[in-house]
């Protein structure tokens, strides 16, 4: 019984120590948030920011577009793909 409790505690700690992932979302036109690209998953917020800014530059949308980075996002697909994230930031 004690061994089982210790194993459950260790498993809980291991799963609780997972590093967050960040998804990059780039919007070519900040006035149309329905038009966006998910540019991938990143290991850190800084990597996400850097890649998102580079993508805005690549599509010539630095002045008119925007980006967001979402922490630990999950996506559901159907008619439209929707991402739910624990946190959204720039």
Protein described:
- By secondary structure, the chain is an alpha+beta fold.
- It has one domain.
- Helices cover about 30% and strands about 30% of the residues.
- It is built from two helices and six strands, in the order αββαββββ.
- It has a four-stranded antiparallel sheet with strand order 2-1-3-6, with helices on one face. Strands 4-5 form a two-stranded antiparallel sheet.
- A hairpin with a 5-residue loop joins strand 4 and strand 5.
- The longest helix has 15 residues.
- It is globular and about 40 Å long.
- About 10% of the residues have low confidence.
Condensed summary:
The chain is α+β, with helices and mostly antiparallel strands.
């Amino acid at each position: 019984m004690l061994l089982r409790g210790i194993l459950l505690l260790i498993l809980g700690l291991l799963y609780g120590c997972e590093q967050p992932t960040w998804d990059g979302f780039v919007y070519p036109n900040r006035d149309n948030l329905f038009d966006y690209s998910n540019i991938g998953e990143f290991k850190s917020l800084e990597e996400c920011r850097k890649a998102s800014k580079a993508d805005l530059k690549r599509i010539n949308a630095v002045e008119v577009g925007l980006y967001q980075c979402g922490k630990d996002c999950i996506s559901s697909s159907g008619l439209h793909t929707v991402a739910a994230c624990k946190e959204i930031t720039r």
